[in-house]
Amino acid sequence: MHIAVSGNIGSGKTTLTRLLSKHFGWRPHFEDVDNNPYLNSFYEDMQRWSFNLQIYFLNSRFRQVQDIRKSGDTVVQDRTIYEDAYIFATNLYEMGLMETRDFKNYRDLFELMSSFLQPPDLLIYLRASVPTLVRQIQKRNRDYEQTIRLDYLQALNKYYEEWIANYDLGKLLIIDSDNIELDNPDDLSHIIDNINSSLNGLFG
Fold first, then answer.
1. CA distance 146 to 118
2. Phi/psi of residue 176, nearest 5 degrees
3. What is the domain range of residue 34?
4. Helix H segments across the chain?
5. Of the candidates 65, 97, 74, which has an alpha carbon nearest to the alpha carbon of residue 21?
6. Which of 34, 49, 81, 123 is the most exposed place for a label (fewest CB within 10 A)?
């Protein structure tokens, strides 16, 4: 099975992916941020590097999903290919940080790639307000994230909510990140119970 964890920057995706992998014994697939050759440059000059960054993520995520489906394992994935297209690339275009021709090229490539992919069996969405995102971003203290603007996070949240409201590719579980601590055993236990219920529905 393919379980995917989605959510804005700082919503807790990586933490939840790690915890679910440990609890269920699922193989984790983390977002490739440490080896991304464009990320630092992007946060320094978004307009110059937006297309390059999104193409890198698109290629990386496509290969990742192919690997997940070929493996035969149950895998929990940190962020989906759909978020790259419907949220991050769209937001960059609407903010004037990606040219129309680049955005059209990107979306054409995404539509072609996604036609070859199976969607996740379960999508988990971590919904978080901007104050929660800011707190989490500050807590993990990644240098390249310290220049992220509030309006950028707000815009991403808007596109996330639109995407989730129209998501119809498979089973969806929404978790409110504002009122939980993923490292709190009681909160994690409640999330795991909800995941088990969702997965049982897949087999029912």
1. 35
2. -85, 105
3. 2-203
4. 13-24, 39-44, 46-71, 81-83, 90-94, 100-114, 130-140, 150-165, 185-203
5. 74
6. 34
Q: What angle do CA 172, 76, 82 make, to 5 degrees?
A: 55
Is the pLDDT confidence value at 204 over 70?
A: no
Q: How many structural domains comprise the chain? A: 1
Choose the catalytic residue: 32, 45, 78, 186.
Answer: 78
Give tens-digit pLDDT for 93-111. Answer: 999 999 999 999 999 999 9
Per the annotation, the verdict on 187 as an active-site residue is no
SS3 84: helix
Q: Specify the residue for token string 């971003």.
A: 137
Given a cut of 90, whether residue 141 has pLDDT beyond it is no
Q: How far apart are CA 127 and CA 121, in angstroms?
A: 19
Phi, psi of 37 (to 5 degrees): -75, -5
Q: What is the CATH number of the domain that holds 99?
A: 3.40.50.300
